[in-house]
Every structure is written in structure tokens, then in C-alpha cells.
Design goal:
Elements lengths: L22 E6 L2 E13 L3 E5 L2 E4 L2 E2 L11 E5 L4 E5 L7 H4 L2 E2 L3 E4 L2
Antiparallel strand pairs: 1-2, 1-9, 2-7, 3-4, 3-6, 4-5, 7-8
């Protein structure tokens, strides 16, 4: 089952309940039957970029170290009510879909 930041079952209601660097389960945008696991890299209002294979959040190294990253991504600002998620396979995370709405996040994995 999934827990919110307060240790209660259920979906996160606000971005403040998400903890960068932790794993969450989310429903893939456009295919709600598919549930995937990804790490929270940034919350609403934060800036995310990948430069020379390093993930930067608000210009600083992210909470989660990404290894063997062979891509660059221009800086994006995470919109309100969303989170930037990073999955092992980037075709199913924010690098492909953009910021994921909170309503798609089932909860933090424990």
C-alpha cells in the first residue's frame, strides 16, 4: 500500500506532502491502467534541468543521484499541482510526459 508524508494511507493532496528523493507510484498520463514507480526530483515551482548528465534542481545537484545519464534537458519549471518524476526507464517519466499531476500520484512507497 501507499503512504502519504504523514504515514497515512492515501494519495498526496498537496505538493508539500511529497519528499524529493523518495519513490512514488503513479498512473501513466494517457494510460491510467498503467502504474509505474519513479523518484520525486522536484515539486511545484522548482526548476529542473539536466546538464552534462547531471540532474540540477534549482541550479543545485538533485536529491537523488542519477547514474549513467546520457542526456541533456533544458531547464523547466514544475507547474502548480505537479511533480517532476524520474523513472528508471525515461520513456515513462517526466522527461517524456512533462510534469506529472498530483492526481496521478498514488502515494509514496514505504
Amino acid at each position: 500500500y501507499f503512504l502519504n508524508r504523514r504515514g497515512r494511507r492515501g494519495k498526496p493532496q498537496r505538493a508539500a506532502e511529497l519528499v524529493p528523493g523518495t519513490a512514488v507510484a503513479f498512473r501513466v498520463p494517457g494510460n491510467p491502467e498503467k502504474v509505474r514507480v519513479a523518484w520525486v526530483l522536484a515539486k511545484e515551482g522548482q526548476r529542473v534541468a539536466v546538464r552534462n548528465g547531471e540532474v540540477l534542481v534549482d541550479g543545485q545537484p538533485g536529491a537523488r543521484k542519477i547514474y549513467n545519464l546520457r542526456m541533456d534537458m533544458p531547464e523547466v519549471v514544475v507547474p502548480r499541482g505537479c511533480a517532476f518524476l524520474w523513472a528508471r526507464y525515461t520513456e515513462e517519466d517526466s522527461t517524456n510526459f512533462g510534469a506529472i499531476p498530483l492526481r496521478n500520484i498514488e502515494g509514496q512507497l514505504q
